[in-house]
Write a structure and sequence with these properties.
By secondary structure, this protein is of the alpha+beta class. The protein has one domain: Cytochrome P450 (Cytochrome p450, Orthogonal Bundle), CATH 1.10.630.10. About 50% of the residues lie in helices and about 10% in strands. The protein has 20 helices and 13 strands. The strands form five sheets. The chain has a five-stranded mixed beta sheet with strand order 1-2-9-6-3, with helices on both faces. A two-stranded antiparallel sheet has the order 4-5. Helix 15 packs antiparallel against helix 17. The longest helix has about 30 residues. It binds protoporphyrin IX containing FE. The site of protoporphyrin IX containing FE has 22 residues, from helix 14 and helix 20.
Length: about 475
């Protein structure tokens, strides 16, 4: 079947695409939502035309799985970050991605991740301490508290930077530059004319980008060189001590210690480390922010979660260990349900380098495909009539979940699935446990609004109130 025959019935979206407005984050999120609803109503595949681009949008779980595996190339928009992230896994072109993904998978096996639990404990306790200032003081936005701690956890586990010693850079220069660069890319993405390299290269934004990138590269280079020198001289065997007194190897140490046949260049190490920080920190902090509003809006969910943690940990203030985390099934259900309703990657775009056969259509070579994960994850045909209701219990009973496991794709699907999934589940469960044991949360999810700021981000309604909890 040729793509022409197969696609004869394919409909063009009726959603009006206003190109300049599309680059406004709240507008683009509204458009994506409309796209999603229309796509589901009209058979799970549609196309739209945006300037010179023909874009396919898909919402069927099997088609999303097919495209995730058949189209490993990411779309042009990822190139905006190339001067900074180079060929980091999150944006790497396919030949390099293939080589590096095999190596990185080894750095994320359960045994390695388990060694980070000491860091998760330490930083979660510090978060509890940070939040004391807000207890009983009325509504506040927890964004900075969660963001700073997520960044600390990422620095310590990815780069192996401890919070003492002379290489303390976190939360200061690097962290600020990173946030500014995020904002800059969002700003560039939203200004259509700034996509032209010619216009961009003459803009003040370009100069600012270069300055920020040089801060980030300088800092990562310094840390890498120091770790490399230590490793080569075998001064400290590149081990980092965690709070439990055990040693663990940070992600950076693992890259430095690769055997010669797999070795990364210094530039590749830097790109991979920078990419990992980006992939890890904001996603986890944004998800935790959504979770706090949601458990604050559903007291029965919060009580059940608190009871689970109390039962597993007992009444003592002991460290959380890996066997505890594996028992926290309700906390995991809360995390998944939050990511079902508010996935940080609601649209996962890919580029088709060759024709791809979908269930009923053909995705032609040379087109962009937007996988509308957020819409799929709220499709009542898959998730039932309560698809728009926050109900973590659905994850505890397989018979209440969609038969097709591809209907949940918050960590993406297929070969480019998130490498940090197991890591982030342990990290978020640890943080949530400490928060639940120490505070009571109130929020109002009916006030939530969102924007598509590269990731799905809260636009308003994320204020919560906290009070100290009596554990009995
Ligand atoms: C709530 C937390 C997280 C969510 C929801 C999430 C989600 C995702 C999604 C949707 C993708 C695919 C992105 C795309 O195709 O453009 C992805 C890729 C990736 N994630 Fe995560 N992520 C999370 C946390 C993490 C963490 C903690 C790490 C590392 C420690 C991480 C590392 C990566 C990497 C390296 C990739 C690229 C994989 C590849 O292309 O082969 N993520 N993640």
């Amino acid at each position: 079947m040729t793509s022409f025959d197969a696609n004869a019935q394919l409909q063009r979206t009726s959603v009006k695409l206003n190109a300049p407005l599309l680059y406004r984050t709240t507008y683009s999120w509204r458009v994506i939502q409309k796209f999603g609803k229309e796509c589901i109503a009209k058979g799970d595949v549609l196309y739209g035309v945006l300037g010179p681009f023909k874009i396919y949008v898909i919402t069927d779980p099997d088609d999303i799985y097919t495209v995730s595996n058949a189209c490993l190339k990411k779309i042009w928009a990822y190139d905006l970050s190339k001067p900074w992230l180079g060929e980091a896994l999150i944006r790497a072109d396919v030949p390099i991605w293939k080589k590096h993904r095999k190596i990185i998978n080894r750095a994320f096996v359960q045994d390695v991740i388990d060694q980070f639990i000491g860091v998760f404990n330490k930083e979660s306790k510090l978060l509890v301490k940070d939040l004391i200032a807000k207890a009983g003081r009325g509504p506040f936005n927890p964004v900075d508290y969660l963001g700073n701690r997520a960044m600390e956890i990422t620095f310590q586990t990815v780069m192996g930077i401890s919070d003492s010693g002379d290489d303390v850079i976190h939360n200061h220069e690097y962290s600020r530059a990173l946030q500014s660069l995020f904002n800059l890319y969002a700003q560039r993405f939203q200004s259509l004319w700034m996509h032209s390299p010619f216009l961009y290269n003459f803009s003040s934004l370009k100069k600012k980008e270069q300055d920020l990138i040089s801060i980030l590269h300088r800092t990562s280079d310094k840390i890498i060189q120091k770790k490399k020198a230590a490793y080569e001289k075998r001064l400290d065997n590149s081990d980092t001590i965690n709070t439990s007194g055990k040693t663990f190897k940070a992600f950076l140490d693992l890259l430095i210690e690769l055997p010669p046949e797999e070795a990364y260049t210094d530039k590749e190490i830097r790109e991979e480390v920078d990419g990992m920080v980006v992939a890890a920190a904001d996603t986890s902090a944004t998800t935790l922010r959504s979770i706090l509003v949601l458990i604050g809006s559903y007291p029965e969910v919060q009580n059940r979660a608190f009871e689970e943690v109390k039962e597993i940990l007992g009444s003592t203030d002991r460290e959380i260990e890996k066997h505890d985390l594996h028992k926290m099934v309700y906390l995991e259900a809360i995390i998944k349900e939050t990511l079902r309703m508010y996935p940080t990657g609601p649209v996962q775009p890919r580029y088709a380098t060759e024709d791809v056969q979908l269930k009923n259509y053909v995705l032609p070579a040379g087109t962009n495909c937007f996988m509308l994960v957020a819409a799929m994850q709220r499709n009542p045909d898959l998730w039932g009539p309560d698809a728009n209701v926050f109900r973590p219990e659905r994850w505890l009973d397989p018979s209440t979940l969609p038969e097709n496991s591809n209907a949940f794709a918050a960590f993406s699907l297929g070969k480019r699935v998130c490498v940090g999934k197991a890591y982030t589940l342990l990290s978020m469960k640890t943080t949530l446990s400490y928060l639940l044991l120490n505070y009571h949360f109130t929020g109002d999810d009916t006030k939530l609004t969102h924007k598509l700021d590269i990731m799905l981000k809260p636009a308003s309604g994320y204020e919560i109130t906290i009070t100290k909890r009596n554990r009995d």
